[in-house]
Amino acid sequence: MSVQFLKPTGVPFTKSGLAFVGCAMFAISSVFAANRIDPKKCVDCHDVVDPKVFKASVHGELACTDCHAGGPFGEHEEAPQKVNCGSCHEDAEKEYRGSTHGTAKNNGISDAPSCVDCHGDAHLIQPFTSETARHSKANVPALCAKCHADIKLAKKYDIPVSDPVGAYKNSVHGRAIAAGNLKAAVCTDCHGYHTIQPGREMMSAVSKKQIPATCGRCHSDILEDYKVSVHGQAVARGITDAPACTDCHGEHAIVDTKSPESPVSPAQLTTKTCGHCHSDLTLAQRYGFSIQRLSTYMQSYHGMAVRRGSVTVANCSSCHETHRILPSSDTRSSIHPDNLAKTCGKCHPDATQAFSRVPVHLDTSPTASPILYWVRILYLWMIVSTIGLMLLHNLLIYAAAVVKKIRSHREEVVYTRFTTIQLVAHGLLLVSFTTLVITGFALHFSRAGWTVILDWVHLGEHARGVIHRTSAVIMLSAGVLHIFHSIFTRQGRKEIRELLPRLTDVRDLSANIFYYVKLVRARAATAPKLGRYTYIHKAEYWALIWGTIVMSVTGFALWFPELFSRFLPVWGIPLAELIHYFEAWLATLAILVWHLFFVIFHPDEYPMNVTWLTGKVTRHEMERDHPRELDRPNP
Questions:
Q1: Residue 93 contacts residue 87 (beta carbons within 8 Å)
Q2: What HEC string does 307-375 produce?
Q3: How do residues 56-106 score in pLDDT, each as one tens digit?
Q4: Residues facing residue 415 across a β-bridge
Q5: Strand, coil or helix: what is 227?
Q6: Which of 359, 362, 390 is nearest to 376 (CA)?
Q7: 125: DSSP letter
């Protein structure tokens, strides 16, 4: 009886059958052996790479036919098949196909990287432990930069971060790698190797939910603190509004926490990082926390010190901790009533339990602290009433002095300096210019105290805009009135001739400066004789003309940008806005520093030169300020 064997299906298999199978397998293996051609033979025709170089690569032990399947190749009866890395690296290929790069490649995007783009030519692939391998840890940032630092590719494929590698190079991780510290994180440590997914995908290593675990691979101690915090627990529950590591520290441009540029540095932590969320009305309403936490902190001593630039005063993390942030109801929390003395003691060694109960957030609302609220209200009324009465008292004295000076013009010999039409034009200019300054700068300083007062009296941005443009029209009307007076009246034409710059103005300026220098040195000096319009008046007048033209042209460009943009270059409107703003500063400061000094604060004019009200000057004023005009016949 012959011996029987069972094949897997249970069918009897005789010795003769086994012999047949053995012969068949031998024949097949012979065919494969024939097709496994020595690389040296391929190189005879295919001068692709030096065999010695290939031998040193990770694939050096393989034959050409191990990758270039097909054949027989002896007479090229069949072309070799396209190389499939997945035939050996099945797991890597599967991961790649599901990645953002693999998906893009499958969708026909030729720019998407394939195996050889990251690992190099298959004949030259070096192990990732080699310093020369393009996918080694030290070289990964440069490898990723080939695509992700290309602005054109970022725009072409709508990649949200245009140059992450550029930001990474200046980060604490990038600088560590550049210094030779291979323990620092590179692109693949955070994004993965073959499984790279965009951050919006839930399972991506850099998604909001996964990023703590990703960072925690290196920062394990911090991860444990973050997991138990209110932020970590919220992120774990899928609340994307809660901050993860990158929300506070940044993504690619992570810098040292001690650097002023870091969003978690003492200089920026409170106002820009924690305050970004905790002053957001939408988030406060959604999650039920107080939106006043930042503002009440900034009103306290600590907050005021932060505004002054202090980096040692207590900030958010000083009290709430950095990563292990817990609610005050949690006994483990640093701000739990039982732990406050210890927390405060970090800065105040003698802190007691009573001291720790002093609120850090200075909330003076009636519900949070009725005593502080009513004391605040009391003092506000005291300030308004006391200072207001003082101001009225002093204004009465000032008004009496001005009226007295006006009466002197009626009692003394006077000379006409300005006509009625000139006084009207000046009055229009005074009112319109002042209104333009207030309403214009309110747009740039929307949070200033005086702007808040405007909002309080219902002069919001829209109303201020209407008033601003109306004042501009009034100012131009005053200018038109002045032009008509200067052209069509004898007095006006004479005034323009007197206002033209002359060489004598330079001599008057020099003489006047030397006169006051001598007085400062307590020396005898004689004041120079000046004419009807001195260099002081001429400088101010022509500056007014120049400023009015510039402000009018730029103002109309900003008033009607749709019209002006038709014939201006693309930078025309922004340039008009820039010039309008800085010309406003120039004009305002010139009025405050120059004009008001000579009209009010000059010792000889105080409390005020009233010529702008009466149009007259006294004999004494003529002898003092305009002796050269007085010396003329028929002044």
A1: no
A2: HCCCCCCCCHHHHHCCCCCCCCCCCCCCCCCCCHHHHHCCCCCCCCHHHHCCCCCCCCCCCCCHHHHHH
A3: 888 888 888 788 776 555 555 566 667 888 888 999 999 999 999 999 989
A4: 617
A5: helix
A6: 362
A7: P
Give the single-character DSSP code of 617. Answer: E
Tokens for 369, please give them: 């602290």
Angle at 468 between CA 483 and CA 555, to 5 degrees: 60
**CA–CA separation, 228 vs 219, rounded Å?**
15
Of 267, 607, 165, 198, nearest to 275 by C-alpha is: 267
User: What is the sign, positive or negative, of the torsion defined by CA atoms of 21, 27, 28, 32?
Assistant: positive
CB 587 within 8 A of CB 388: no
> Hunting for tokens 């915090």 — which residue is that?
229
For the segment 508-540, what is each residue's pLDDT rounded down to a tens digit? Answer: 999 999 999 999 988 888 889 999 999 999 999
Q: For the chain, first and last CA: distance in Å?
A: 154
Query: What is the average pLDDT across 161-174?
Result: 90
What confidence score (pLDDT) does residue 28 get? 43
Mean pLDDT of all residues belonging to the chain: 87
Q: What is the DSSP string of 399-434?
A: HHHHHHHHHHHHHS-EEE-S-HHHHHHHHHHHHHHH
Q: Under a CB-based contact definition with an 8 Å cutoff, are residues 5 and 13 in contact? A: yes
This prediction has a pTM of: 0.68
Write the pLDDT tens digit of every residue in 122-132: 788 888 888 88
C-alpha distances in angstroms, 251 versus 111, 254, 587? 25, 6, 45
Q: Please, which residues bridge with residue 616 across strands?
A: 416
Tell me the one-letter amino acid at 441.
F
* Nearest residue to 475 (alpha-carbon basis) of 422, 418, 548: 548
SS3 state at 616: strand
Q: How confident is the model over 413-464, as pLDDT tens digits?
A: 888 899 999 999 999 999 999 999 999 999 888 878 788 888 888 888 899 9
Distance between CA 239 and CA 182 in Å, rounded?
34
**Cα radius of gyration (the chain):** 42
Element (H, E) at 6: strand 5-6
Question: Closest Cα partner for 243 from 268, 266, 219, 264?
Answer: 264
> Which residues fall within 8 angstroms of residue 328, CB to CB, at 6 or more apart?
335, 336, 337
Instruction: Tell whether the torsion through CA atoms of 10, 12, 16 and 20 is positive or negative.
Output: negative
Structure tokens belonging to residue 346: 């970090």
pLDDT exceeds 70 at position 209: yes
pLDDT of residue 87: 85
Q: Would the pLDDT of 34 be above 60?
A: no
Mean of the pLDDT values across residues 336-342? Answer: 93
What is 539-557 written as a DSSP string? HHHHHHHHHHHHHHHHHHH
Q: Within a 13 Å sphere around the CA of 275, how many CA atoms are in the beta-carbon half?
A: 17
- Owner of token pair 């204004």: 395
pLDDT(204) > 70 = yes
Beta-ladder partners of 12? 6
Residue with tokens 């006043």: 292
Compute the distance between CA of residue 388 and CA of residue 142 in angstroms, rounded to an integer.
Answer: 68
Backbone φ and ψ of 618, nearest 5°: -80, 170
Among the listed residues 139, 136, 127, the one whose alpha carbon sits nearest the alpha carbon of residue 60: 127
Contact at 8 Å (CB) between 525 and 518?
A: yes
Burial of 521 (0-12, 13-18, 19+ CB in 10 A): exposed
